[in-house]
């Protein structure tokens, strides 16, 4: 059994685009953000120029509750690069506001993930001090 | 003086009348595959780089058709410009397209619309994957929303498979049976990179080390190097060449966005027609392809499905309408997919055992094998009397799936 923890090696870090910069700036503050459409109220992620639901360009950043449920998961044993410590568990999360994001699961055993498992976001520094959103099981 | 061959190019409309014209219901039906070639495939190809192996592949396909480079008036593929220049065949039509079945359909469209008459489509890769402690470079784009989570193709596709297993109870044994079947096709194929590595049982697959749960090592495609190419020609030209023409009956492509940047969700759909979800990528394309061809899944004799990961075969049987949603796991366990079954799959060993030559090579190789099956020239695992073959490329973990139907007879 292996307890899943944030990566501590020199893993590849994300580089923001013009569009996604506010998302990563929020992560640095410990906040998870998504874009909401002023025209249709729909939520868009990953960060985009237009609304995924109506193509309108009136997207405003909004802070997420940071809670959701596991939609799918895979525990990885062959690392993407040797800088990653295995095993690690990649998850797609159904966020409570009604959007999905990809992340890694921490704070449980490597075989503990289940679809529907309740999780909450927390931020941990990786390469260059970039704050990366991870998810931990919650009751 | 133009050769007799070139005369056909110079007077296409007269020739069409002489041969009675075409009864084609779709413009693609005026197009046939006339030449195919795989270069040597290997884990590492000594003495080659991507350009050299691609050019070698192109020459091989031209020779297979009984043609010379001078007969080519259209070129598609990543090193296509090099072929044009080195063979000094310019000016010719060229497309920048480089991705598998979409490139072949673009070549078919170019022929059908008269932009070109004989088109070379080639791909090749060597010397790209050198840093072996990481996964292959084409499996792990450096996108900001995936890279720091350790994502690469196996993990992306695992998230899709897991979802299907959750919804439908699809079992790891079914995935393993698919992988063993494909690997055994490669085991007996002397041209396969993993020739002689088997035979494999489903239990061997389940016993191999885990890569990205539920995918064990033997559920996954390999990495290799190699080149391949196809020559397509207008049907009236195709009739007189070295090999029997293999006709384009239909095809289309389903794409949902860039691969490996966004959460790979089974239920990801679009606003244009929400019933076509990413988990069944290829459904719309296959329905359009079957409509073009005037046939149905029950008419298919061999399924040259793209096999990046074992579950993708199950998914494609459901997406293409060979069985219902959620039934694919049982469908593949009934003796259906073996070489003497109703729908033999991936008969050269596919991406798991024949070759996976980089970012784009293997995306053409399902169509090459389908062509060889329709010709009846496979040295191993030839399915008897193939009239119609279905080839595919891509998968739901990559947010796309492309299909192409080939036939021994013109539609
Ligand atoms: Zn909107």
TrEMBL record, chain A:
Residues 24-59 form the ChsH2 rubredoxin-like zinc ribbon domain. Residues 61-124 form the ChsH2 C-terminal OB-fold domain. This is Unannotated protein. It comes from freshwater metagenome. SUPFAM superfamilies: Nucleic acid-binding proteins (SSF50249). Pfam families: OB_ChsH2_C, zf-ChsH2.
UniProtKB/TrEMBL annotation, chain B:
Pfam families: Thiolase_C_1. GO terms for molecular function: acyltransferase activity, transferring groups other than amino-acyl groups. Coiled coil: none annotated. Residues 281-407 form the Thiolase C-terminal domain. This is Unannotated protein. PANTHER family: ACETYL-COA C-ACETYLTRANSFERASE, NON-SPECIFIC LIPID-TRANSFER PROTEIN-LIKE 2.
């Amino acid at each position: 059994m292996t307890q899943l923890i944030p990566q501590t090696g020199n893993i590849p870090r994300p580089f923001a685009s013009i569009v996604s910069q506010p998302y990563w700036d929020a992560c640095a503050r410990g906040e998870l953000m998504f874009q909401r459409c002023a025209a249709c109220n729909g939520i868009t992620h990953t960060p985009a120029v237009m609304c995924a639901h109506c193509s309108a360009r009136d997207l405003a950043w909004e802070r997420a509750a940071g809670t959701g449920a596991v939609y799918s998961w895979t525990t990885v044993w062959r690392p993407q690069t040797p800088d990653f410590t295995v095993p690690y568990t990649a998850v797609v999360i159904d966020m409570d506001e009604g959007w999905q994001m990809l992340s890694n699961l921490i704070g449980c055993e490597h075989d503990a993930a289940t679809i529907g498992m309740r999780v909450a976001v927390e931020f941990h520094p990786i390469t260059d001090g970039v704050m990366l959103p991870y998810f931990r099981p919650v009751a | 003086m133009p050769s007799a061959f070139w005369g056909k190019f110079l007077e296409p409309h007269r020739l069409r009348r002489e041969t009675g014209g075409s009864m084609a219901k779709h413009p693609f039906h005026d197009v046939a595959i006339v030449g195919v070639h795989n270069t040597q495939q290997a884990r590492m190809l000594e003495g080659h780089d991507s350009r050299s192996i691609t050019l070698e592949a192109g020459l091989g396909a031209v020779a297979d058709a009984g043609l010379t480079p001078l007969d080519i008036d259209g070129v598609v593929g990543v090193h296509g410009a090099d072929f044009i220049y080195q063979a000094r065949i310019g000016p010719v039509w060229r497309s920048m397209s480089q991705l598998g079945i979409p490139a072949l359909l673009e070549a078919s469209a170019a022929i059908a619309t008269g932009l070109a008459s004989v088109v070379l489509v080639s791909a090749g890769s060597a010397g790209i994957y050198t840093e072996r402690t990481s996964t292959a470079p084409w499996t792990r784009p450096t996108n900001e929303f995936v890279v720091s989570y350790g994502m690469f193709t196996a993990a992306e596709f695992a998230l899709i498979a897991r979802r299907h297993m959750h919804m439908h109870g699809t079992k790891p044994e079914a995935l393993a049976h698919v992988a063993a079947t494909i690997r055994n096709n490669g085991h007996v194929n002397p041209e396969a990179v993993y020739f002689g590595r088997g035979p494999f049982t489903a239990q061997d697959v389940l016993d191999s080390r885990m890569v990205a749960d539920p995918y064990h090592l033997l559920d996954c495609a390999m990495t290799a190097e190699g080149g391949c190419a196809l020559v397509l020609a207008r049907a009236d030209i195709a009739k007189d060449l070295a090999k029997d023409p293999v006709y384009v009956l239909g095809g289309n492509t389903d794409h949902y966005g860039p691969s490996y940047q966004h959460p790979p969700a089974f239920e990801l759909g679009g606003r244009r027609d929400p019933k076509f979800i990413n988990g069944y990528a290829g459904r719309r394309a296959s329905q359009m392809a079957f409509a073009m061809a005037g046939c149905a899944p029950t008419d298919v004799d061999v399924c040259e499905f793209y096999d990046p990961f074992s579950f993708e075969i199950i998914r494609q049987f459901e997406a293409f309408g060979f069985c219902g949603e959620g039934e694919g796991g049982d469908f593949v366990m009934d003796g259906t997919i073996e070489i003497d079954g109703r729908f033999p799959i991936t008969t050269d060993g596919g991406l798991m055992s024949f070759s996976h030559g980089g970012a784009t090579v293997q995306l053409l190789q399902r169509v090459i094998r389908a062509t060889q099956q329709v010709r009846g020239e496979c040295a191993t695992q030839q399915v008897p009397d193939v009239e119609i073959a279905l080839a595919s490329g891509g998968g739901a973990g990559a947010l796309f799936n492309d299909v192409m139907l080939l036939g021994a007879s013109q539609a």
